[in-house]
Structure formats: C-alpha cells, structure tokens
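#struct-help
A.M.: can someone run this one for me? Single chain, 261 residues.
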Amino acid sequence: MNDLNELPLIKSLRNVIEKVSAGIDGLELAAKIVANSPLELAGLLSSCLAEAEIWRQVADSTYCHPNGFIKLVLWDPPDAPFRLRLHIWTASSKQRARQDEQNVHGHRWNFGSAIIAGTGLQVDEFVRCDAGGEVYGSYKYRPSDPAAVARGPEYASEPSELELVGKARLERSARYTLAVGDSYSCATDMLHTVRSLSADLTATLVIQGPSLLTDAPVYRRPEQPAQAPPEPLSGAQAREIVGATIEAIRHDAGQRAATDA
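D.P.: on it. Structure tokens below:
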C-alpha cells in the first residue's frame, strides 16, 4: 500500500507517532488528528477504492468480527510502527446480535480510535475484583499463527487459541458514550466491550500500535454462548460498505461545519 504513504493524513499520523511514540500518548494524538480530519479521511478511503491493487488488499482483509462490526485493514506497511483499521457497525440484525454476545476482553496492543461517522458508541470498562461483581470464565487468547502474534487478528479462530485459565470476578468500572468527532484510547491493561448506539451506520478509524503481549485476556459469563466465528465479506459487499461510510463521513462533516458556522 505504498501509494497511500504520500497522502497528507498518513504523513500527519506518521509525523506525530515518530515525534511522540507508538505508545499510548502518540496513538491518542493520532486519533485526535483523524477525528479532526474527516474530509482527508474520506479521501483516504476513496483512494483505497480507486487503486485496484490497494483495494484488493483491503477487500481481502475484510470480515465481520465476532464482536459485531465489520473490520478492514486499510494501511499496514511492514516498516510502520502502526496500522490503520476501519471498523463499521451496521443495521444488520446478525451483527447487532453479536454485539450483545461479545466477551469482555483486552488487547495485546495499545490503540487510539476516532469516531468518524454515525450516532456513536457505548464503551463499558471493567476491572477484576476480589468480591462482588459477576463471575466469569477467564481465558487467554494466543494466536497459533506466529505471524499473527505480531499483527494478526484478535479473535480465536481455533478452539486451541482460547485457553481457559480459571474464573474471575469482574465489575463494570465505567460506561460512557462517544459521538462523531470524539476520540479515545485503549491500553493493554484495559478490559472493555464496545457497541454502537443505534442501527445507523457507525464507523471508527483505529490507529493500532505494535503488539506488546503474547496473549490477551478474554472473559465469558458461565451462561454466555461461545462467540460466532468471523465471517468474510465479498469484494462487492466490502466496496458497498466503504462507499456508504464515505457518504456518512462527508454528511456528518457537512453538518458539523454548518453547526460551527
């Protein structure tokens, strides 16, 4: 995806992360840049659609995540200290049901995220506790593919990748909502769930840092069913959803500009 490297938005993100770090501080700043650059982001997505080789790589990376959103990897050169992921929540009843079934989880890497279209997200954060809360099965997710340890998926595609290590009590420590133009960050020690606020298309751009851990924590309530596996999307489906996201970004940017005028 070298052709994207010269886009102003990519250059801005590279500059801030190289200047600050690929740690949580740099990723937070990068997310703020994205949140304040909706038209540049729409241009990045349009470039992905327009360039055949770039689009082939993006489309090949697209799937419906077990947590109920569509995930696309937009930019992931091997020499970069971060990668860009587009997450899209839609009105699909199957995807919305997956949001309700998602596990409380952490990540092997830090990230910053900007809400770029839609009505927004609800984030619930959790902490482990010695008493009270709810009892969960405690698991470790560790990808079996060596290449995935560094950059790969954050779901268990094989039963052996999700290792039961015991039980734990969790309580919710925070709940907050995020609207278009907001950004937030998530460190490797955070446990959370994320869901869209409505059935309207909602999208975020995730700036993902390098992998720091070999495994990530996953928690499932005793009565909670195992999550559905990821589902690939066709190239046509991916193109349609990215096109709708570009329209939503531009619409929301126009509304924000009119409000600020």
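A.M.: thanks! The chain has one domain: 2-260.
D.P.: also worth noting: The helical segments are 8-19, 24-35, 38-50, 52-60, 93-101, 146-151, 235-260.
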